[in-house]
Design goal:
230 residues; alpha/beta; Ribulose 1,5 Bisphosphate Carboxylase/Oxygenase; Rossmann fold; 4-stranded antiparallel β-sheet; 3-stranded parallel β-sheet; 9 strands; 30% helix; 20% strand
């Protein structure tokens, strides 16, 4: 087992972290069981009753969190002409095409999300092996390959997240900041869960949401009773 620090161990006193709690209680305990001074991110992990090895059980989608992520999202847009101008007016942080591709090939990745118009994907494809592993490659399934660049930029700035089930059947996603407080975090988590439920594959059998935990960046994971989520 990994060696835990004194402050981490102190947060566990007086609490049973093996118990499953209601969603609000779980959030409150996760916020209480923290010991760092910075405004940590709050994350959620949901275990689904799917086998991602089968294409008909893959769960992938997007969700606009009602309270955002609590951080500035730097959006890059690959576009030409009028669409480039539209992206700039919408508040994109970086707009261009060949010039941005060249910068990225040189090792520059100072952005959080990327959007591309369909007509630029031939050029953007050159750096797919650089963007893909970092989760930055524009994708039509997540709404980041589109001619409606203004809407895409607005949604990403507002806190739109994309998610995908991992090999173990677990979906991880950030839900905001510790400073949001329990109410706003619960609103974000419930919006995220609604998105996951709507994407339930028809091939999935038995219980769909089988487990869930909430945690802060440096804190303990708190288990949530999935039966209380309805």
């Amino acid at each position: 087992m990994p060696k835990r620090g004194k402050k981490y161990l102190e947060t566990g006193k007086g609490h049973d972290f093996t118990a499953k709690l209601g969603l609000r209680e779980g959030i409150e305990l996760a916020l209480e069981a923290t010991y760092v001074k910075f405004d940590e991110s709050v994350d959620v992990a949901v275990r689904l009753g799917v086998d991602p090895r089968h294409a008909d059980q893959m769960v992938r989608g997007t969700c606009i969190l009602p309270n955002g992520l609590g951080k500035e999202v730097r959006v890059l847009v690959f576009a030409r002409g009028e669409k480039a101008k539209e992206a700039e007016e919408a508040g994109a942080d970086y707009v261009g095409l060949e010039d941005l591709v060249e910068k990225i090939q040189g090792g520059w990745f100072d952005f959080d999300k990327a959007v591309a118009t369909p007509d630029t994907m031939g050029v953007v494809g050159r750096i797919g092996k650089l963007l893909g592993p970092r989760g930055l490659m524009p994708n039509a399934k997540t709404g980041t390959v589109t001619f409606d660049v203004a809407r895409a930029v607005d949604e990403l700035k507002a806190g739109k997240i994309d998610f995908r089930v991992e090999k173990a059947g677990i979906v991880h996603a950030p839900m905001g900041k510790k400073s949001f407080g329990p109410e706003k975090l619960e609103e974000n988590i419930r919006a995220f869960l609604d998105s996951i439920i709507k994407l339930k594959p028809s091939a999935a059998k038995g219980a769909y949401i089988r487990g869930m935990a909430v945690s802060t960046t440096m804190g303990r994971g708190v288990k949530v009773d999935t039966l209380t989520l309805k």
